[in-house]
Write a structure and sequence with these properties.
Distance between the termini: 39 Å
Low-confidence stretches: none
Oligomer: single chain
Number of strands: 14
CATH class of the largest domain: Alpha Beta
Structural class: alpha/beta
Helix content: 25-40%
Order of helices and strands: EHHEHEHEHEHEHEHEEEHEEEE
CATH topology of the largest domain: TIM Barrel
Strand content: 15-25%
Radius of gyration: 21 Å
Mean pLDDT: 92
Length: 334
Amino acid sequence: MRTDVRWARIERDGGTFDFSAERSAFALARTGGFRILGILAYGHPIHTQNRAPSTAAEREGFARFAEAAERELGNLVDGWEVWNEPNHPLFWPPAPDARAFVALFERAAEAIWQVRPQRQLVAGGLSEVDQAYLDQIRRPVAAFLRRGPVALSLHPYRKSNPETLFGDLSKAGLIDATGRAVTPEGVPIWITEWGYCRLWPAVGPTLQGEMDVRIPMVTAALGVPLTILFELVDGGPQTKSQYTCGLLEAGSLRPHPAAQLWEQGAWLFRQVSVERPGVVQVNGHWSVAAVGGSVSWGEGPAVAGLCSDSLGPNGSAVPGLRVGNTVICYTRQS
């Protein structure tokens, strides 16, 4: 579960930190089986006048907040993502500044690692595959690998199929010779937010689920250690497309078709383990090596023909799993 830990909400009076609501919510989430990636983010009305931190003094204020978060919530989280989409003016007001973001990440890392030296840190998920911004932060972020575990995260939203991510990452120089998503300096790529929304043009409830199910297959084929789907529950008015990305309805928690399709996909995902990164595209379908065979997926009858020896319950053979118009199957090695 990836969720905000907002500086302005925690330090309301400009000097005292109150993590009680987060502590209670995170503890409840852990009992439900969630692991948690906390997002340390956003400006402060007193310290930064609600802008992103841009001065040394503002970064010191954020670092005190980050250190307090580790001390108070560190036993409940699995990692910290420093900021959210710093390359987007909505989240880094008044305008994105890669140099200022790197300086903030450095100071926050020092503060967190002072409390727990091996805490996993993630450089805030970039909006889309922003090559110009990536080129400015890649090497500075990689320098932190000498000091502790660091990843760089992306939010590769798109109106096209999830598989188009392969081409985007390749163009940006973010796929190594083995097919793994990684920067040239060796920083692993995480996908900390990605999904499809029902009100996007030509998507709708069923295609939303179909594309959501293909996301983890794409990222597994890229060797991505962590992928987080956006989002579990609808976040706002259903007249706005950005709030129609959830698997469940707000309030009632009734499942959308995407949730039902996700359950089908999850059944197959639990049966197999991807062995190594590197996707193969043949005749309109995709395959990735799995333990003892391969996982293949695509649209149409040609893909279904690949699935004659697909894994079923208790190892029985089934003709494949259909999720919307997508066919997914695991094929054993002969």
